[in-house]
Amino acid sequence: MNFFKQFNQFLLMGARAQAKWELDISNTILRDKKRLGMLCLLLIPILLGGIAFAEDVSGVMPTMLGGKTAYTPAFYTPTIFFASIGVGLVAGLITGCIGAGGGFIIAPALMSAGVKGILAVGTDLFHIFAKAIMGSVLHRKLGNISVGLAAVFLIGSMGGATLGGYINRTIYEANPILSDAFITTIYVFMLGFLCAYALYDWYRSTRPVKAAAGVTVSAAGTLTGLAQKLQAVNLPPMITFDEGVTPGGRKISWLFLVLSGALVGLAAAIMGVGGGFLTFPIFVYVLGVSSATTVGTDIFQIIFTAGYAGLGQYAIYGFIFYTLAMGMLLGSLVGIQIGSLVTKVVSGQTICALYAIATSAGFINRAFALPPKLAKMGYIAMSKDTGKMLDLVGNTIFFVVLGSFAVWVFYIFFSNIRTLKGEEPKAALRAKEVAA
Known about the structure:
436 residues, 17 helices, 2% strand
């Protein structure tokens, strides 16, 4: 039980770090005219290209582009583009309002809408890469990046991304249904863990007793027991980092960095989530890297890991739906801003409940989608009508919950415009928080 609790805390910390990165990137893009111009330039050729291919081109496109009828550019309609904006908007609202995990619903949402799993993963990776490039703040963070740490970590992440991309493509070429089932299974376990801890965290927040402390690393730089043990292993070459935090810095063997990078790259390429949700907890809690160095290095690795995985493992094989990617980017930029503002007028307990609801909806959606896929491959006995019913129930719950969440957030946002603009006194704000 303690292991599962620690693992869930581990994932939740990573999801929160990823959400903070998303908000920083969004702020950087929207507050810079040059970056907004770059976004418009990216949208123009993609939208024009989509209109040019606004008919099913599966009969004339060469099969080398992805194979199994997954092509680039993919089948395009304005409806699909606007739907992708909606997916990105809801993901942004969750990320901004809850402060964790909005990106976890993107691939499930795309798959629920009929997009093949491998195409959903590649598209999400490209969306993350495009966002990271346009919102890059590396020039402000260079002092917090350990070049040696980042370089060795990226060796592992590139290797892991290569393996993850190869696994997804190989399974897809063997059986597209098996590919969807494989990706769905990964999400069932990941969202299951996040859902379990989110529900526990919400329940704990409703109790009068003080919440127990989880896995922590103090701001002063105290290391976890695991980090101390790993840094004590003398397996050359040793990588030195955090010289500005601790006199003489800290050292860790290259092997642990490569293995950590491989895990992050593998998860990024298989799930399409960029890997940032794993980098932060691994660096801080496992390797013993300071938070300051971790933040800078995490930004660095997301750009290269998502870029390499998205372009090198999916784009060149035709597994990216560019119109969807750019629609999600637009939606998420707006959603995360609104969501982050709403946190100022709702209570922390409400936010815990919202996170539990969102992750539960994602888990239920993928859990209901898995049996029909297994039945199609003959692994379990199930009628087609039963499979369709499970899909319908899972999709209905998923989209109704996320749609209701979006409506609720917009209602809170527009009904508290004066408060958010600072036109109401702080006493009224506190009263609303208590009422919520």
